[in-house]
Automatic annotation (TrEMBL):
Residues 345-426 form the Apple domain. InterPro entries: Bulb-type_lectin_dom (IPR001480), Bulb-type_lectin_dom_sf (IPR036426), Kinase-like_dom_sf (IPR011009), Pan_app (IPR003609), Prot_kinase_dom (IPR000719), Protein_kinase_ATP_BS (IPR017441), S_locus_glycoprot_dom (IPR000858), Ser/Thr_kinase_AS (IPR008271). GO terms for biological process: recognition of pollen. It comes from Lithocarpus litseifolius. Its main location: membrane. This is Receptor-like serine/threonine-protein kinase. It is a single-pass membrane protein.
Length: 823
């Protein structure tokens, strides 16, 4: 037949040709024996959860393509498995994934096999590769014997452990299963960090280069890993352990299958449990270990130093520069740093007679693999290192330690660290350290400089004696070191008192630029000048939208003051417990304040260099800005007071009901003490009154007991609500807060959720089950006439708002409740 006379035949032929390059030529979730996958073709699991095909990682501009698997229903492409993670292809159109010789094989553009399932036994029947809806790619006999799995991706994970997958050991072939991090965000090749199971101890460890363990989950007790208390509130993930003669492994599932969750060995060297939030288009962190970045072994590579206060955590030591700039831009620091100038050791004709010298580095965590040397003093230790061309550093306290070769796992600490002496070429050090005599010109210049300095000092003293305001100076680019006389002037000689407490009194002031401030005069502070400045400087670096911002300080002899931003709306208690209905906080505002407060505590507990325990969470220490955004106040005082805090605490009387049982029993205090206080405060958000107060018709009922009992019995939660709200509240949110509060006040601190989980529960990411009624609450009720709880500022519980409302009830006042944050 003439083609020109049959256009339908030509059109049919055209569509057949097009179909050869369209993914619809494959089965929806299957690559059959006579099919292949290339170009932009993909297969999609039956329920539409996962998709498999070629991809380019991250924002890479390189033409590197990989066969991988990602979530189909997640708007942000997230790769969970990669086949050829070490051997990319450059042309996906001519590269093919197909079944060949009893295996699933990837052929590159030259038709060379670069990845395979590597099965040695062959099947007699036709094979097919099927992408299941749990993210498992399975190679199996054809549809007639689909239950027989010859190979599955769950047995060969890359960096992600999906629900339903296994993580463990195969006793038959003596192989350990690992999940290994990507090298960086644009390279899925195996990185330096891996997670594996230690079968004989039933615990997980994280390894650096599969050789150095730096984190341990603790043993499995049948419910949780001992070092992962976040698992105790087990209402999302159901973990189980299987051990038999063939294998030993852990697996986990989700109580709610609609949740999208993954467990990842991140490029940061931290394992992370993540859940997808579609409304925010981002992955939400459920928990991670190790908790801080600098706990990851050798994260910054050779001659790199980790610093939690640094923007990217890693920096090169003095005299060094990044080995691979591009890798550092991708947060891959594993290659570390290289010397800018070679050492002179072994060179007999030293330029200008300069030898290698040492740079002093204070407050350091010493690097790994030191070698002890038996010498008598520091000078001998220095000489020992200098005489060894391979020695790169030394340290000397009571003994001598030297390091040969690369320096690994360095960390910048605060005052707890030690001093390390780094070996550098002399040209990398200031010229005055070369030992040469100082010439006359330098001497004359120094004398002239001293004269100018003395003149400036005299001028400053003269200005201060005149009582001028504004002579403060910036410390570390963040805090202002105020002059005491200036603060006297700013506060009109401390005439307008806003509040007071166990640590001192707070006064209102105004700076010359009309900025309102709150000045706290500290009492019982025994630190010296240097220690006080160091502690305050540390606190001053801690800034968060839900924390009060410290503007500056004053330290002149025994006069120790802290300067904060002033907040005209005062503290939460003045709004929460006021008797009049006018201006009462509605439920929406209360819920957002509870959430914001929790976020502030998460920052203190988990995001700072050292975990900061507030030790006095209550409404008086929660401040509200103009938009009712909560700010946690007094958060640095526990750190600032240090060991004296416990003494001050036990000598001050006050509000009952916020202190965790461990305070009374005398055991060590952890961040879970704050969780307890926060939980007690949540009950007050609901009731609108103090837990320690009793209404006329409930003289024998302690409100937390009443709330916990009603929640367990499934009663009407709105009956617990502040009557001033007239029932106007979200029932689900009230129930959530009451259940959460019950978990927060558990007697055993390990049963209380960390603040990170508290935030997720309030955000609605996590559900919360019923909690038992703590026995200590009933003891408290039975003995409330004999038991007194103490807080550091409990003798004075006011807020800034009380200073502007003379009709407020005479409660004791919080020490910094008059401050706010504009951060």
């Amino acid at each position: 037949m003439d083609n020109k006379k049959n256009p339908w035949l030509m059109l049919s032929f055209f569509f057949i040709c097009l179909s050869l390059n369209n993914h619809h030529s494959l089965g929806a979730d299957t690559i059959s024996a006579n099919q292949s996958l290339s170009g932009d073709q993909t297969i999609i699991s039956n329920g539409g959860n996962f998709e498999l095909g070629f991809f380019t990682p991250g924002n890479s501009s390189r033409s590197n393509y990989y066969i991988g698997m990602w979530y189909k229903k997640v708007s942000l492409r997230t790769i969970v498995w990669v086949a050829n993670r070490e051997t990319p292809v450059s042309d996906r159109s001519s590269s093919v994934l197909r079944i060949s010789d009893g295996n699933l094989v990837l052929f590159n553009e030259s038709q060379i096999p670069i990845w395979s399932t590597n099965l040695s036994s062959t099947s007699s029947g036709p094979l097919e590769a099927v992408l299941l809806d749990d993210g498992n790619l399975v190679l199996r006999d054809g549809p007639d014997n689909s239950s027989k799995r010859l190979w599955q991706s769950f047995d060969h994970p890359t960096d992600t452990w999906l629900p339903g997958g296994k993580m463990g050991n195969n006793n038959r072939n003596k192989q350990n299963m690992h999940i290994i991090s990507w090298k960086n965000s644009e390279d899925p090749a195996p990185g330096p960090f891996a997670l594996e199971l230690q079968q004989y101890f039933s615990n997980y460890i994280i390894l650096w280069n599969l050789s150095v363990p730096y984190w341990n989950s603790g043993s499995w007790n049948g419910k949780i890993f001992n070092q992962v208390p976040e698992m105790r509130l087990n209402y999302i993930y159901n973990f189980s352990y299987v051990s038999n003669e063939n294998e030993a492994y852990f697996t986990y599932s989700l109580y709610d299958p609609s949740i999208i969750s993954r467990f990842v060995m991140g490029i940061s060297g931290q394992i992370q449990q993540l859940s997808w939030l579609e409304n925010t288009k981002q992955w939400n962190l459920f928990w991670s270990q190790p908790r801080t970045q600098c706990e990851v072994y050798a994260f910054c590579g050779p001659f790199g130093i980790c610093n939690l206060q640094s923007l990217h955590f890693c920096n090169c030591l003095k005299g060094f520069q990044p080995t691979l700039d591009n890798s550092w831009n991708l947060s891959d620091f594993s290659a570390g740093c290289a010397r800018k100038t070679s050492l002179q050791c072994g060179n007999d004709s030293l330029a200008d007679g300069k030898r290698d010298m040492f740079w002093e580095m204070t407050n350091m965590k010493l690097p790994d693999h030191p070698q002890p040397k038996a010498v008598g003093n520091s000078s001998e230790c220095e000489s020992t290192c200098l005489n060894n061309c391979y020695c790169t550093a030394y340290a000397y306290d009571d003994s001598c330690l030297i390091w040969i070769g690369d320096l690994l796992d360095l960390e910048q600490l605060d005052s707890r660290g030690r001093t390390l002496y780094l070996r550098l070429a002399a040209s990398e050090l200031p010229s005055f350290r070369n030992g040469k005599a100082i010439n006359a010109g330098v001497v004359l210049g120094s004398v002239a400089g001293m004269a100018v300095l003395v003149g400036l000092i005299a001028f400053v003293i003269f200005r201060r004696r005149k009582g001028s305001i504004g002579t403060e100076k910036v410390v570390d680019g963040l805090l202002v070191a105020f002059v005491y006389r200036d603060l006297q002037n700013a506060t009109k000689n401390f005439s307008e008192k806003l509040g007071g407490g166990g640590f001192g009194s707070v006064f209102k002031g105004t700076l010359p630029d009309s900025t309102a401030i709150a000045v706290k005069k500290l009492e019982s502070i025994s630190q010296g000048e240097k220690q006080f400045r160091a502690e305050v400087s540390t606190i001053g670096t801690i800034q968060h939208v839900n924390l009060v911002r410290l503007r500056g300080f004053c330290s002149e002899g025994t006069k120790k003051l802290l300067v904060y931003d002033y907040m005209p709306n005062g503290s939460l208690d003045s709004h929460l417990f006021q008797e009049k209905n006018s201006g009462v906080l509605d439920w929406k505002a209360r819920y957002q304040i509870a959430l914001g407060t929790a976020r502030g505590l998460v920052y203190l507990h988990e995001k700072c260099r050292d975990c900061i325990i507030h030790c006095d969470i209550k409404p008086e220490n929660i401040l509200l800005d103009a938009e009712l955004c909560p700010k946690v106040a007094d958060f640095g005082l526990a750190k600032l007071i240090g060991r004296e805090f416990s003494r001050v605490l036990t000598t001050m009387r006050g509000t009952r009901g916020y202190l965790a049982p461990e305070w009374i029993s005398g055991v060590a205090i952890t961040a879970k003490a704050d969780v307890y206080s926060y939980g007690m405060m949540l009950f007050e958000f609901v009731s609108g009154r103090r837990n320690s107060e009793q209404s006329a018709d409930e003289k024998t009922r302690f409100f937390p007991i009443l709330a916990a009992s009603l929640i367990i019995q499934g009663g009407d939660v709105l009956s617990l609500l502040d009557p001033r709200l007239e029932g106007n509240a979200d029932v689900e949110e009230v129930t959530r807060i009451c259940r959460l509060a019950c978990w927060c006040i558990q007697d055993d601190e390990t049963h209380r959720p960390p603040m990170g989980q508290v935030v997720q529960i309030l955000e609605g990411v996590l559900d919360v089950n019923l909690a038992p009624v703590p026995r200590s609450l009933q003891v408290y009720v039975d003995n409330q006439d004999h038991i007194i709880f103490f807080t550091e500022s409990s003798s004075s519980q006011s807020s800034q708002a009380r200073s502007t409302n003379s009709n407020s009830s005479s409660q004791s006042k919080s020490s910094v409740s008059s401050t706010s944050s504009k951060s």
